[in-house]
Amino acid sequence: MKLTEEIKQAIIDEFEQWKQKTYGNLTDKQRKELGAFHTPPLLTIKMIEKFSDLEGTILDPTAGSGNLIAGCILAGADPKLCYANELDPSIYAVLVERLTSLGVPKENITMMDALSPEFSAFMRKLSGKGFTFGGMKC
Q: Is pLDDT of 57 > 80?
């Protein structure tokens, strides 16, 4: 799918606002020392443009701070059909705050090991709905 320049700019702007709110005036070096990494918005845009569409359920099993899901919502995905998972408790807290502010229900945001049997069971539950995973319909 092709994103408009307006949507691309909205993704970049939301990321920059979130980054400023979350990290304030920390330099990239200071942020990395804290272990705070994220997918740059231009990469998020390229990933979304590989999707065939944003219809149905969207899952990011290793969501980090939620850049991909946030970008999908800004590009038109239904937040109620977006699911995110993060293993790290401190990043999970950031993920919940960010995505719930974009309309994702808290129960759609999990904290599990993406390689665990528990997460496999969670994915099986979602697979009955059909979902987009890495740009592929599953």
A: yes
Q: Are 23 and 38 in contact (CB under 8 A)?
A: no
What share of the chain in percent tops pLDDT 90?
A: 56
CA triplet 118, 137, 46: central angle to 5 degrees? 100
* CA–CA dist 32, 54 (Å, integer): 32
- The token pair at 44 is 């998020």
> Which of 108, 113, 60 has its CA nearest to residue 88?
113
Question: Exposure pattern of 20-50 as b/e (b: 16+ CB <10 Å)?
Answer: eeeeeeeeeeebeeeebebbebeebbebbee
Global model pTM greater than 0.85 = no
**Residues 109-118: tens digit of each pLDDT:** 999 999 999 9
**Does the pLDDT value for residue 134 go beyond 70?**
no
Question: Could you tell me if 108 and 48 are in contact, meaning their C-beta atoms sit under 8 angstroms apart?
Answer: no
The token pair at 81 is 């059909």
**Angle made by CA atoms 53, 54, 57, in degrees to the nearest 5:** 125
Domain 5-137: give its CATH code: 3.40.50
